[in-house]
Amino acid sequence: MPKPEEVKYTKTHEWLQLGAEAIAGISDHAQHEMGDIVFVELPKVGQKLEKEKPCAVVESVKSAFDIYAPISGEVTAVNGAVTGEPALLNQSPLDAGWLFKMKPSDPAEAAALMDWAAYQEFVKQSAH
Amino acid sequence: MSTATTVRRTALNETMRKYGGKMVDFHGWELPIQFAGILKEHEAVRNSAGIFDVSHMGQVFVTGADAFKLLQKTNANDLRKATPGKGVYSHVTNENAGLVDDIIAFCLAADRYLVIVNATTSTKDYEWLKGHIGRMRVKVENKSDDFSMVAIQGPNVPKMFEIFAPEALKLPRFGIVEKDIMGEHCYISRTGYTGEDGFEITAPHSVINRIWEKMMELGRPYNIVPCGLGARDTLRLESGYLLYGQDVDDFHTTYESGYGWVVALDKGDFIGRSVLAGQKAEGVKRRLTGLTLTGGVPRPGCKIFMDGRQIGELASATYSPTLKKGIGMGYMVPPDLKPGTPLEVEIHGRRVKAEVARMPFHKGTAFTFKPS
Predict the structure, then answer these.
(1) For residue A32, which residues of chain B lie inside 8 Å, CB to CB?
(2) Which chain B residues are within 8 Å of A39, Cβ to Cβ?
(3) Chain segment B133-152, per-residue pLDDT in tens
């Protein structure tokens, strides 16, 4: 399980663990704001993602939320467990609740993502 | 029109924050959307006990020799069902049989009624009732600003009232009793918007916080939880209860809403009666119809399709924590679709399979209720 400080973050509250095969999910802050998650629609394996474009949908009881691709690339795996048990996103957003794995097409894009300290500051700023 | 007006706070505002309520602006009222989480709150009400601040609801008092006459004239339901100590759920209908509001009219005494009205419509209802007084000897007073209200709901709630208000345990569904609580004149009714047994307490602002705390204390053995608007909506929709402004309004009639049992055509004349009598004879063209679906969460505004053609859109829709699937209701044409009829609902541009469902979606203890 990656620690919060071991992954990068987007301004739309996704996290990305960098690597040849990067792993993406939603941040703990995001799951907390969404409330009880009851439905997840994942991208398809092989699907080409474009950074900052919607690629998945997470629905809580309250509302629907688009999930944006943190960087561009191709989906290599999806977490089928979360479609059967969407509450995993609430219980374990960085581990059992991961959403998909991807092969980055331009790893340099990741440089634009926030680190843990910057993300915490971002969350604090957007609360005002 | 400007909406940048000040948000109104209920007398329970501080208490809601103390208990961790996530506050939102709900039609101009600052109310908690949730506390611990909608699912947890929903399950607490279905299985044990939950408490809601519903102080935004309005209170209109109708008093005088002709109080019954005025209410009988302005309501589709028969006020004769509301004998002293009882209430009746009803629709206040306009000349076209559209709904001015859906209300509960409680008969406190032959010449004294308490009408519980919706928050957004309280002024409109008051003006409407006043406008139809004519020569009747009756006084209509909007006391919505003078009262707070809490709803205590769930199958274990009657046990909480055994010592606190034993007289309330004898109430039938929609019964009401007047009682001094902490030195103030209050009303306890066996009503609610959740589909479960329980009570609503209407009380002056001065004692409402102490009443809330008392309920939390009495409910501790039953793990009572504070509940927000989120759970209130999932609970009422599972129960097939209407939300004024979303499911019904000035332009949809009682028959169209599927609440034909509210219409008492045989009681004599009332506003909107001729239109309703016509709809009864000829049938309606559209009807609020329920549907269920898996593979997504339907939301208000989603389009409904049958055989590839759009037949309506969802008025209310959400995830049902009890059924663990999507539920919704919308006005559909044709109006008499049989349960099980296959439909599709468009969610995020994708058509998801659905089917017509019987309503209510779920029958809680309020539907199988027997007073002790």
Answers:
(1) none
(2) 296-297, 319
(3) 999 999 999 999 999 999 99
